[in-house]
Amino acid sequence: MVVTDPTAKNYCFVSLQFIIIDTFYSFSIQSLCNLFSSLQDYRCSSFNGALSTLPAHTLGSTVIKEVLKRAAIQPQEVSEVIFGQVLTAGAGQNPARQASVAAGVPYSIPAWSCQMICGSGLKAVSLGAQSIKTGEADIVVAGGMESMSQAPHLVHMRAGVKAGDVSLQDSIMCDGLNDAFYKYHMGITAENVAKQWKVTREEQDLLAVQSQNRTEAAQKAGYFDKEIVPVTVPSRKGPVEVKVDEFPRHGSNVEAMSKLKPYFLKDGSGTVTPANASGINDGAAAVILIKESEARRRGLVPMAHIVSSAQVGLDPSIMGVGPIAAIRKAVEKAGWSLDEVDLFEINEAFAAQAVAVVKDLGLNPEKVNCQGGAVALGHPLGMSGCRILVTLLYALERTGGKKGVAALCIGGGMGIAMCIERTS
């Protein structure tokens, strides 16, 4: 795929990022579509934080408007809108359709939601490219959105209750963070990975601190500025402009982090803490994919090509290492070697799995998440896949790199990866 001008809303516990991605998709011999956009994202808030009053479809509509504006494409020229979202309980029919219409895309243009847990945002981009490849679309808006702050608690009362108390279920847990097969939290899968891949507590804390410190340095250097679009949020004191991620913890250090107690295993064997795991966040990201001939007609210059993508399945109990096989598969399909990849963006669901993936693949840590990852920035489930793609594109542009890989582990035991190559 090719990316030229992305815009997205990023997550950071309630954060927004605008990502306009104009992309060029190439499969095998043919280059069938271009991804053009001005990469931008907005991230800034924590769970129940600055963006918590905005529903997911509002976040989504904001990035859709922005990507269309940046790519100079009219809403009526769009063929299809595809958005990933995980926590849709209580969000109304087809939230992607709601976001599309709210962004000014006509009723005549179809929109639909896809769900692949943490991989949803990247899968939506892949599906959009496939739609263009098969000739079903010329221009697709794809991305992901999530408002974890607005995810409801649930109660099953369809048949009523004759006597006794009724318990509530947190939809964040039952629909997002608890494994459907083993019936335990994703944090336990991280503990499983730490044990099998021999990742120590110290290694996890070191990676978490590195993620925080890299993000802090990137923020201060303005590396995220191109990705960020301010969002105005209503409040009792009047409109408030949100334009800075609030989730990153500046000044993080190993000494303080090492004092935190394990959260998921409390029998003395645990290593995963709130500090070396990703956060709960809100945000949205969007990209524009366009057929190559249409891009040429409009005079759009793509930012990068999507060279290949891949997805794999594995035992859900060790879902965090899904990126290992997914990255290998995507890189092989691209005809690359791991050594020739300039930068990797691998979602940090947990530091344990992030360390394991880097170890197993033998990657140079300096090439991975060079501006920090989800431990520092947060992890709005449905949008993270698109967010890391945008961050990767801008990081490649900034560093002069050419080849990049974006990848995520996926709850339920899967992994997804995408290889991109800049055109200049």
UniProtKB/TrEMBL annotation:
- Read off the PROSITE patterns from this record: THIOLASE_2 (PS00737), THIOLASE_3 (PS00099)
Q: Which InterPro entries match?
A: Thiolase (IPR002155), Thiolase-like (IPR016039), Thiolase_AS (IPR020610), Thiolase_C (IPR020617), Thiolase_CS (IPR020613), Thiolase_N (IPR020616)
Instruction: Outline the extent of the Thiolase N-terminal domain.
Output: 45-293
Thiolase C-terminal domain location is 302-422
User: What terms describe the molecular function in GO for this protein?
Assistant: acyltransferase activity, transferring groups other than amino-acyl groups
Q: Which residues form the active site?
A: C118 (acyl-thioester intermediate), H379 (proton acceptor), C409 (proton acceptor)
- Alphabetic keyword roster: Acyltransferase, Transferase
Keyword check for Transmembrane helix: no
- Give, as in the UniProt entry, the pathway in which the protein acts: Lipid metabolism
Matching entries from NCBIfam families are given as: AcCoA-C-Actrans
Entry's family note = Belongs to the thiolase-like superfamily. Thiolase family.
Q: Which protein is depicted? A: Acetyl-CoA acetyltransferase 2
